[in-house]
Amino acid sequence: MVKLRRGLRIRTAKCSLPLRRLRPFTQKEAETQNIDLLQLATELETLRNEMKKQAVDAEQDIAVSDIAKAEQAAKSGDSSKGLEHLKSAGRWAFDVATKIGTSLAVEMIEKSSGLKP
């Protein structure tokens, strides 16, 4: 007898196996599998605080919001969602991250959006 349970598990009398969702595995996801999400979340928090100090217009406020969303995604372990938000953060976030020395944040913004120094 097979029962589907919450958490996508198959339970049988002999074993319990996790099910994986079938979907394409992208190159960006492969590159982010080995990142330290805790360190990234810490750097994104530092970046967000610095950007809040410097923000002077609506476009920059939106970039701060994108960094905050990426920070939340990193804290929850969702690297693909974090990359989406980092891509939206744009050049100003990349420049501030580079200036303050948050190297992992710089690397992830660069990978997600293709920006170069």
Tell me the layout of helices and strands.
Elements (H helix, E strand, L loop, with lengths): L2 E3 L3 E3 L4 E3 L8 H6 L4 H18 L3 H18 L3 H22 L2 H11 L4
Antiparallel strand pairs: 1-2, 2-3
Helix pairs in contact: 2-3, 2-4, 3-4, 4-5
Note the main attributes of this structure.
117 residues; 3 strands; mainly alpha; three-stranded antiparallel beta sheet
Give an overview in words.
It is built from 5 helices and 3 strands. It has a 3-stranded antiparallel β-sheet with strand order 1-2-3, with no helix packed on it. Helix 3 crosses helix 4. It is 64% helix and 8% strand. About 16% of the residues have low confidence. The chain is globular. The chain has one domain.
Quick structural summary:
The chain has 117 residues and is mainly alpha-helical.
Number of domains: 1
- Taken from the alpha-carbon principal axes, the silhouette is globular
How many distinct beta strands? Answer: 3
Low-confidence stretches: 10-28
